[in-house]
Amino acid sequence: MAAIPAPARAISGAAFATLLLIALMMGANHVAARIAFNNGVDVATAVVFRSTVTALVIVAILASQGLRPRFSPRHKRMLPAIGLLVGVQSLCLYSSVARLPVALALLAFNTYPIWTAFWDAVVYRRRPEKTMLAAMPVILVGLALALDVFGAASGLSTSGQWTRIGAGVGFALAAAATFGLALVLTQHEAGDVDGRVRTATTMTMASLVALTMVASQGGFHLPSAPAGWAGLATLTFLYGTAFTIMFTVLPRLGVVGNSAIMNVEPVFALVLAWLVLGQAIAPVQVAGALLVVGAVMALGLRKR
């Protein structure tokens, strides 16, 4: 996910349903990505397809609406940096999805509110809110349960479990850290840029970052089977459609940008990964997942 959350507000039933639909499509996008990865596609190739198509769709929307963006010198400096961060985040998150059960990769990524508070304190010297400080241990405990960090649910030793999940968790946390920094920079340096424009520039930069990775690896790694093509096409369609809805339908429903409701994405991913990929996790891990999702949603819905 590369959208920038906006302050929470009361929303209509139609907006609530639309947000759930976007969360469902985002969760399904990652399940489709795993299918593509299982059939010859590499992470950089997937990010290029996804980001390029999404950028083209948003640019087409901007052109149809006759919007001519104007950038200040600060915007010209910071928007490429934000796009670079989101590009790295995209590569890291898909790298995690390729190595972990989809829902667990998204849960580890859902620690980004903690990283956002951290970067806000480091870069702008702003102290975290008390609600954030209270939620941090809840999120971390839930994540520990979901990831089965001590190997209790899997029957492995702690070292054995971390051998299995360590790389995937590392990529997910790197994605969360870079996304958290992108959110902070956006809030302070580019919050006054139209969301559609910001998304177009961000997706363009993400595509360029991924293209650089593709070039360094000797070219695109395209699907080796029909299922891979279906997965690549589906993830691109779902991601692009979700962002199109986000920036065309939601503003008319009284919601701008993202919302805490969309943090149910890992729950949708958990169900879809079980149905489509046969990925299942232990009940204690499900409990941990719900704890993380609940804490993150509570943070997003808090009064400001």
UniProtKB/TrEMBL annotation:
> Which cellular component terms (GO) are annotated to the entry?
membrane
SUPFAM superfamilies linked to this entry: Multidrug resistance efflux transporter EmrE
Q: What is this protein called?
A: DMT family transporter
The alphabetical list of record keywords is: Membrane, Transmembrane, Transmembrane helix
Where are the membrane-spanning stretches? 43-67, 79-97, 103-124, 131-153, 165-185, 197-215, 227-248, 260-277, 283-301
- UniProt keyword annotation of Transmembrane present: yes
Domain EamA as annotated: residue spans? 18-146, 168-298
Query: What InterPro entries does this protein map onto?
Result: EamA_dom, EmrE-like
